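Quick one:
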Amino acid sequence: MSKIKELFKRSDLVDKPLSRLKYWSKQFKGSLTLLCLLGLFSFPLLTQNPYYLGIFINAAIFSVFAASWNFLAGFTGQVSFGHAIFLGMGGYFTAALIRYLNFPWFVSLLIGGVVALGMALVIGIICLRLRGPYLALATMALGVFLMSLFNNEILGDATDWLFFGSQGIDRVPPISSNSVVVFYTYLIIMLVSVIIMILIGRSNFGTVLKSIRDDDTGAEASGINITKYKVIAFMISGFFAGMAGGLFSMLTRNVAPAFFQPLYSFYAIIMTTIGGLGLISGSVLGAFVFFGLEWLLSDLWDPVFLFSIILIIIIRFAEEGLLRPALEHLKDLWDLLIGK
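Output:
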């Protein structure tokens, strides 16, 4: 009888967002999430050292970037090795609008995201009829091409005015000179971006994407225009990756052709693999674990070598990433402590 009442309670929550949020916050996963957020927002109370705040700011930026890659690969099964394309396009346009046209940073950030969305539309139309390794290789090749183009290796120095030269754009104004303000601004942008991607993933649109991921032939046979949905997913993913690029350019105060390098794309893949494919919140966990381990161990190991080893271990022993098993073990421990 109690189980039936619980089912009715849950069904009533569908049309009551505030009640559903309250219900979620009382569950173990919701309570743990709120506790982690409280810890993040309280961190500046422990230290206002720009170096330590910078670690968390970088993690927030790459949480958005990794989540955008996870949205594409985890929900539609489309693996891109050239996701840094959108990081670079968003970074360049955001930096140019702030540096040369004095646009407000938030307007420039949104425009940079929209430009990356447009680039994703073009690439999606060109590449998304490819499947498997061919799509991954095609996106990686496009990323290398754009890096060479912006580095003046293709058209030469005569195009400096168009692509800003091999040095890129420097002296990009930051959001604020106060590192605590920057910390909270980036953290809020990260939360809003991640929540939007989670909500899209849980919507009917996200359900269609998952059906394409699980069986694209069956989805197409049922009347779903899989190319259209893949392109839209690519555009959403590109928008948030472009936002991450804009945030990164304002943090580093410059943008250069190196933003297009494949290494950044593989960073997103590593972070997603650490957290769990198909879990947007897992990408956030992966980004914070990534930068935490880099800070702890970078003096002992080369970061690329270190994360290659970590990636191999996770693929071997935790195919679904760390988030799901970590939550399961923490839940078991919590139940044990409260005697449930």
